[in-house]
Amino acid sequence: MKKMMSLVVALAALLAIVACSNDKTEPAGTAIQTENSTDSEVLQEPGAELLVWASKEELPFINEISKQFTEKYGVPVMIQEVGASDTLGKLTTDGPAQIGADLVTFTHDQLGKAVSAGLVLPNDAWQEDTRKTNKDNVIQAVTYGNIMYGYPLSLESNVLFYNKQLVPEPPASFEEVVEFAKGFNDPGKSQFALMWEIENFYFNYMFIASDGGYVFGNNGVNFNDIGLNNEGAVKGVAYYGTLKDKLLPMRTGDVTYDVKKGLFLGGQLAMNIDGPWLIHELREQKDRFGAAPLPSINGKPAVSFFGVKSLYVNAYTKYPNAAKLFAHFASDKEAQLLNFQLTGAAPSHSELMTDPNVQKDEFVSAITKQFEHSQPMPSIQQMSSVWIPIAAAMADVWNNGTDAKTALDHAVGQIKDSISGGSSGGGL
């Protein structure tokens, strides 16, 4: 009898455990994976509604993808225009106050600040999908502290824009650019072969990196390993210094974005190194303007920074599941193709980079080709200590003919002081 009672009690306990497990509900904000789908799917919270912040350039895509999302999932999506440069600052104040957008877009170089301030949630439920559909360096860009946060939308990289009426075929090397300049430059008429923002490290990184220089070691996260004054960096910056007499006899501060854009659109500048923000204006005159990867430097491919624009989920959102679902929906292959079609954004999705329709677009294909020789800009906060010292060093080389190694050694000293809490160096 005792044995029978023990068996009954044990069976009742087992049934209770099974019943509890079947009735288990997930708390709000928990990712739930469906069993009958090849994709994991986050189930949105009842009554969810979303707010997305997007820049003016992104609005055509965000408006359309939001309509599609609402049609499919029944979640209303509101959109507010916020300038790209204002997004993170606005999220810093509005997020904790719970009046910020549920989703925002920004380029990955701001990720370190966002994570350190606790402003964004990890891309957890969809990280495997994101890994499978994007290249390793894209994943590296949207990851911070070994945790993935971003849902990649598009790529940004410097490319060579050129006037087809002046340069029928884009030059493959800086040596070809210099040769062209010999017969084209006329400083008295403000006529030049090539311009870039020669004091801006974002554009000058190609001279540092093309021969083996780098900012921080271990793919940009080890700030104790600075490669801005190694042998390759010194060689590249020394070459950079020679271009003032051969190519662009102007002081660094005189070559601004507005100056070179005006000369380029006016036909006085044959070639212009710039980013994708210029494409919209040039696309309207695609018979006149073209784009190509950057010319090689000292016989080696020019290595540039690249950025990844992504969607991020506000850590203070009331609807994290719905927000994550939207972020994935708006960043998958079909959505990125739509983004390309509506705004001309360069896809980050691996398959779309080689899509025939993408490759037919001269401007976007230039970005995807340059991407193959690009590195993600470091997103750690110590990067803020780099900009001013390196810009000053390169300006000293260009304007005053200072020895490249001397200038770079001094800059790296300032950067180390700034990172360790010293008074030198400064940052943005």
UniProtKB/TrEMBL annotation:
Q: Name one GO molecular function term.
A: maltose binding
Q: Name one GO biological process term.
A: maltose transport
Matching entries from InterPro entries are given as: Maltose/Cyclodextrin-bd, SBP, SBP_1_CS
Q: Which domain of life is it from?
A: Bacteria
Q: Name one Pfam family in it.
A: SBP_bac_8
- From the UniProt annotation, give the residues forming the signal peptide: 1-21
Q: What does the entry list under GO cellular component?
A: ATP-binding cassette (ABC) transporter complex, substrate-binding subunit-containing
Compartments reported by the entry: Cell membrane
What is the membrane topology here?
Lipid-anchor
Instruction: Please indicate if the UniProt record lists Lipoprotein as a keyword.
Output: yes
Is this entry keyworded Membrane?
A: yes
The UniProt entry lists the main location of this chain as: membrane
Keywords, ordered alphabetically: Cell membrane, Lipoprotein, Membrane, Signal, Sugar transport, Transport
Q: Which family does it belong to?
A: Belongs to the bacterial solute-binding protein 1 family.
Against PANTHER family, the record matches this protein to: MALTOSE-BINDING PERIPLASMIC PROTEIN, MALTOSE_MALTODEXTRIN-BINDING PERIPLASMIC PROTEIN
Please report the name of this protein according to its UniProt entry: Maltodextrin-binding protein
Q: Name its species.
A: Fontibacillus panacisegetis
